[in-house]
Amino acid sequence: MSITRWSFGVAAALTFAAGQPATTADTVSGSLEVAGKKVDITHGFAQAKKGFFDKTKDDIEVVLCDAVVPVGSTREMFARIELADAGKVHCVENTIDATRQVINFTLRHSAFKKMGPSGGATSAVFEPKVVTATRIEGRIRTTETMKSFEGIPYSYDVQFSLTVVPKKE
């Protein structure tokens, strides 16, 4: 067995064991701009979670970042916060409900000295292509440059196609 095949097999096994999708079909492409500085968003993760407004339907949390987020940090929000505060990762997180609307967004970026922008806003939109229990594909963006409570301007525009990891029971 070649080292490449062995490495891929080990990586796929570790990824699967960690509860993340082992697929090469996932793609992410776009940018996040904060305080006039743009970062390329190239990595992503999607997971199902219990519906916030409708408990009978699942929401999908889409986490899009400029770097690989370590396995333990993908499902754990506080680990992502620590990485962002340290400047190691910059993320756009959106929760999409069953009606395909953004019901919550959060930005993780070291430029925000207090809490990063979050909540619901009509200028944070999801343009769906595919939404199923196992896959989400589309574009998440702001329709205009927005400002944090600290007055820091930000915007994002990211296209993605991601496997949806089932929710933790």
Task: Describe what you observe in this structure.
With 169 residues, the chain is of the alpha+beta class. It has one domain (23-165). Helix content is 17%, strand content 44%. The chain contains three helices and eleven strands. Strand 8 and strand 9 (135-142) form a beta hairpin. The longest helix is centred in the N-terminal third of the chain and has 15 residues, at 3-17. The chain is globular and about 40 Å long. The N and C termini lie far apart (37 Å). 32% of the residues are buried. Residues 1-24 have low confidence and may be disordered.
Shape: globular
Secondary-structure element string: HEEEEHHEEEEEEE
Uncertain residue ranges: 1-24
Strand content: 35-45%
- Helical fraction equals 10-25%
Compute the gyration radius: what is it?
Answer: 16 Å
Number of strand segments: 11
